[in-house]
């Protein structure tokens, strides 16, 4: 395998190697696609941000120590940690002067990019995983670099996608261990925030329980105790509140509103709306 830190260009605050990809139409038709691949060694003055990114950046710490700030939370970075920069969220990270950061990373995007991150235990309210980098995943990063630097066999969209998905698969093998260290304090709020963000995306209660790292039955019981209604009823309330706003304030067709708030078709939306509100969406709009 190649040395990830041997062909770098130097600037005022780091040594960096980076490769840019132009996603094909095939990649963009799928769940997610890689955009950039890189590795860097920090200098003593290395400090990124505060700034935002348009993409997801999955970053793996291979050496050194540092600090990562995102979403109002501060995390200590150490060897084998993972951290993720989320699109349009202000972030900041910097190195320890006594243990300079070495990192490998790739940027990616796509309509299911967030779900890929969730499979390894990362999310908007948990952007850092201590000791999340596996040996298998690091070996795949080496393969990724070898692929894009090969002159004899130029990389293709399929070859990039294969390695990217293998990476997520390798990292997900560490998820159960990471879930054990997920502090119970605050997980209900994280679950509530997650539901409020993704209620219109067809999420399941099981997937939310998995996201916060607790048993589904325990999750539902504690959520109901804390907020006075079950997670499913909470989601239904969020959907109905949004539907009412759209009925009042827009000229969207009923089928468009149904899909906008998370229902697969007009029939299921109308049935749920009438059960919750007492009248059909069409009658409610007229009244």
Please report the total strand number as a whole number.
Answer: 11
- The fraction of residues in strands falls at 15-25%
Based on helices, strands and strand pairing, what is the structural class? Answer: alpha+beta
Order of helices and strands: EEHEEEEEEEEHEHHHHHHHHHH
Helical content band: 40-55%
Q: What's the Cα radius of gyration? A: 22 Å
Shape: elongated
Q: Figure out the total of helices.
A: 12
- Mean pLDDT, to the nearest integer, reads 88
List low-confidence stretches.
Answer: 176-185
Distance between the termini: 69 Å
The side-by-side strand order for the widest beta sheet comes to: 1-2-3-10-5-8-11
- Which sheet architecture does the biggest sheet show? 7 strands, antiparallel
Task: Name the descriptors.
21% strand; alpha+beta; 43% helix; 7-stranded antiparallel sheet; 11 strands; 4-stranded antiparallel sheet; single chain
